Amino acid sequence: MEIVINFFEKNGLIVAFVAVGIISYLGFLISKHVLKNKIPGAAVSILLGLIVAYFAGLHTGGSKGIADISIFSGMSLLGGSMFRDFAIVSTAMGASFMLIRQTGLAGAISLVLGTTVSFVGGSVIAMFFGYHDAKSIATIGAGACTFIVGPVTGAALQASSEVIALSIATGVVKSIFVTISTPFIAPYIGLNNAHSAMIYGGMMSTTSGVSAGLAATDTKLVPYGALTATFATGMGCLLCPSVFYLILEKIL
Amino acid sequence: MVIYGVSFLGACYILGQLVGEFLAKWIGVKANVGGVGFAMLFLILAHDYFNKRNLFSAEAEKGILFWSQMYIPVIVAMSATQNVVVALDSGLLAILAGVIPVFMCFACIPLLVKLTKSPLNN
User: Fold this and answer.
1) What share of chain B is helix, strand, coil (3-state, %, to 5)?
2) CB of B25 within 8 Å of any CB in chain A?
3) A190 and B110 in contact (C-beta within 8 Å)?
4) Of A154, A124, A212, the residue nearest B82 (C-alpha)
5) How far apart are CA B72 and CA A40, in angstroms?
């Protein structure tokens, strides 16, 4: 047994290929036979991944889902930002530069609007829950942008570690919720072309949520949504601890 | 050869991410600013440039296509390594602050699509 465990740990990435293959196979099986193709296989697989992460987290008490179980530690490499970003870049092969240029301005507007709406929404909710100081409110509001903007803003404003933890949790909830809800909401908001996908990427801000949400909806849209979404974290880190915080301080 | 495609993709990735790092440093932000976005633009433009001159073999293209087909599996792995427990157990504030703004943003999308599409069509 020890030999097997040691072997799995040493060959983490390969184990991850096998594990993801099995999750995907189950996902496509459930999609086809249980859900009668009403929910795409990719979406079911991603959801299965989240469920696995939940039970693994309960079991280990760690923060990295299944990767906290040592034999599956390679999952954090395959699912980490390096492979994710590399795979996202590769999807650009099929993208049309014409379409991107046409929607460029709309994408830029959506970036600013998405950051603003998320920050305002998150801040108002923080106020409802009894936070009165601009630092804490801004940090939670920033967490409503992405789970990176939250702690970056919190650190810049020297918010308490409890509030920073809360802002990270807010961002993680957002990322997961965007992942799950996108395929269901897509038909109602016209998310079926490059133009709306670029706006969606900017509005939603969270790269992980957008890339997983679009993967579950329609892979053709991935490059367009991901293109704008990858600018959103930078935009949030730029606006939240500076302009937005100062405005918030004036209002309070 | 397949490796040419993978290497080409890797070069675009490195260049783009570095631009994102330097741009962040330049505007004083502690995160990568659009590195992936720049990498995607480099890939699209450079691929187009080489393709027009017949310098991009079908074999090399396979090296890039492989990774774009690995995209969903990578996302599945990413999902399986998320901190789902903290998301569900972190209390009502984190859940509401994570969910309600998303609905507000969803609501803005059709509006923004309408506003930005009309001048292009005319």
Assistant:
1) 85, 0, 15
2) no
3) yes
4) A212
5) 12
Check residue A37 and give its pLDDT: 80
Q: pLDDT tens-digit profile of B59-71?
A: 999 999 999 899 8
Q: Do residues A196 and B114 make contact, with C-beta atoms less than 8 angstroms apart? A: no
Query: Does residue A97 sit at the B interface (CB-CB below 8 Å)?
Result: yes
Cα–Cα distance, A219 to A198 (Å, whole number): 13
Contact list in A for residue B76 (CB cut-off 8 A) is: 20, 23-24, 27, 45-46, 48-49, 79
Q: What mean pLDDT is predicted for residues B70-99?
A: 89
- Give chain A positions within 8 Å (CB) of B22: none
What pLDDT is recorded for position A135?
94
Select from A234, A144, A237, A91 the least CA-distant residue to B75. A91
Q: What is the ipTM of this complex?
A: 0.89
Q: Pull the structure tokens for residue B33.
A: 């600013």
**A34-38, A192-196, B18-22, range with the lowest pLDDT:** A34-38
| Contact in structure between A25 and A48 (CB atoms under 8 Å) | no
Q: What is the DSSP string of chain A?
A: -HHHHHHHHHTHHHHHHHHHHHHHHHHHHIIIIISTTSS-HHHHHHHHHHHHHHHHHHHH--SSGGGGSGGGTTHHHHTSHHHHHHHHHHHGGG--HHHHHHHHHHHHHHHHHHHHHHHHHHHHHHHHTT--SHHHHHHHHHHTT-TTHHHHHHHHHT--HHHHHHHHHHHHHHHHHHHHHHHHHGGGTT--SHHHHHHHHHHH--HHHHHHHHHHH-GGGHHHHHHHHHHHHHHHHHHIIIIIHHHHHHH-
Which residue's structure tokens are 């789970």? A147
Nearest CA in chain A to B114: A196
**pTM, entire model:** 0.85
Q: Average model confidence (pLDDT) for chain A?
A: 92
The predicted pLDDT at position A109 comes to: 92
Span of A40-49, A64-73, A108-117, A188-197 with lowest mean pLDDT: A40-49
